[in-house]
Fold this sequence. Notes:
It is built from one helix and 16 strands. The chain has 205 residues and is mainly beta.
Amino acid sequence: MSDAGSEAEGEAAPTIGTYEGSRNEASERHGEGKMTFPNGDTYTGGYASGARSGPGSYRWVKPLAVYTGEYLEGQRNGEGKLAFPDGAVYTGRFQAGKRHGEGTYAYVNGDTYSGGWADDARNGKGTYTVSATGSKLEGSWEKGLLNGNAKVTHADHILKATFVNGQPELPATITFTSTSYTMKVTDRALLGQSAIAVGGAGGDE
């Protein structure tokens, strides 16, 4: 989701919208201000030498979405919160306009992911929690997929395996919660498709 608007077209462009706020000696937007774009989108917050900078809030009209947080050189950068049109919400770090660093994504179905991000995808250490079952996927993520050693905790058992591109490798182990008995698994059918499906999900918007 982009909030670039049309400010890059320059101050003299006839379609960049209406600006209300302070300017510097070069007549650039500088300090606190509000920009209203022709499509109805609005930005309210800080500017530095013509670019969005510091705390600010961008509101998309169609579809409705809101970002509130830090900007740097015109892009989302630092701590922020982005509410998506479908009701999902991301809270955490941004870099160059993308989810990057530590953050939490609350999905519209109630699932959550908390951990590392890079270029808008789950990346690094993180935990995905399935709302419907309470199952948790904990491990290392790369480009949105589980990669490396991971633990999948269900209500009655725990699966430990090495994942490659979102899929568990064999052999794996299953430990039953009630008895603490651990069995070695060499049959992929015993791994549980629900955990595999969530671990392999790549899209967050």
